[in-house]
Amino acid sequence: MNETIDYRPMWKALGLNLEAHxxxxxxxxxxxxxxxxxxxxxPDGMGYFDFVISExxxxxIQELVDARQEGRKVIGTFCLYVPEELVLAVDGICxxxxxxxxxxxxxxxKVLPRNTCALIKSFFGFTLSGLxxxxxxxxxxxxxxxxDGKKKAYEIFDDYKPTFVIEVPHMKTAAGRALWRSxxxxxxxxxxxxxxxxxxxxxLREGVRIVNAKRAALHxxxxxxxxxxxxxxxRDALLINQIAFYDDPQRFTQQVNALCDELEQRVQQGQxxxxxxxxxxxxxxxxxxxxxxxxxxVIEKSGAVIVGEESCVGERGTRNLVTExxxxxxxxxxxxxxxxxxxxxxxxxxxxxxxxxxAAMAQRYRxxxxxxxxxxFCAPYTIEARHVERRxxxxxIPLLRIETDYSMExxxxxxxxxxxxxxxxxxxAAAV
Length: 432
Ligand code: BJ8
Prior knowledge:
The chain is α/β, with parallel strands linked by helices. About 55% of the residues lie in helices and about 10% in strands. Strands 2-1-3-4 form a four-stranded parallel sheet, sandwiched between helices. The chain has a four-stranded parallel sheet with strand order 6-5-7-8, with helices on both faces.
């Protein structure tokens, strides 16, 4: 955090609990030093992302506050199905809200059942404890009917922050597509109402251009990770994917591309963050919202390197682009609807595309094994793990199933299980 600027007046004006917030920043700073800054031989380009994290409750919030003073609207989300393109089309700012830490659990459990997944408890915990400046700075939260937990939780969340819920169908049928398209129209109208701006073909084209460029930069980053040795750690790649939900999209795209230029040189020089014989793992499953870094830290501390994330904070969220051809407002909304309906969240049934994608990623990134990560009490991903296991066993790709939450209590057990999994992987030969 920039110590020359005093952000406390801003946090106070946003209604944060200053004392608890100081404690949160201190704990996060320590975790970041232990998990991130302790890594050796990080690419120089990570300096920008370290800076963003150091200012995640400071400068970025100041930017949002300033933007609101200029009349722009801040829209908070918790899910990939809320298209950033529509928010940009009303000159708004789309922000993924805090949901990745074991914070305010006691407060959250006053309004939610204990056996709710950690991600949902976390966004309640942050809000009810006065610790999320993003929720405070948001004009509107857009929720979605993905899993039952989130869908019902939004009904309560609306008591604390105006929450507009869009219906995500659960089957990719013609009727599901028609419902989804009409829901995007309803969202577009709501954004127009909140912002006082019209969504036009031109504003959608510009929104799509910006978001496609951001996703293309992340594709570039992902492809570079297929090299052996891997030029960047999984922790750092996850961090970049997490920051994609907070940062200004155009600035972020520029920085990811600059990092990729550096990584290309690393690949050419055979420079990596782990040896050529380090086990290469893919992580698949529930999203890891910032600052959820526990499992990647355990995996990489054990000597493996993560080479891909089949996750909403990863390739599930970024892999498809909206087709950029000219058209009217309706045709842009059609193409946006199609792109988002292609996302293969486990909330859909059946969901074979996800299984195909995991197998394809394992091959593309030359993974030796897959770690399936599910949050406790998350029915969609915990149940779908059975299909993932079966599909990967057909391809003889070893799988480790992990169910956990955000607490650190199971850390020793996770370390033991990850180490045992790494030991049973076939030894990796020297790189070709
Ligand atoms: S598109 S994965 S971000 S819904 S972990 S809250 S599913 S009980 S987060 Fe998700 Fe959108 Fe799907 Fe992605 Fe429910 Fe499971 Fe909790 Fe989850």
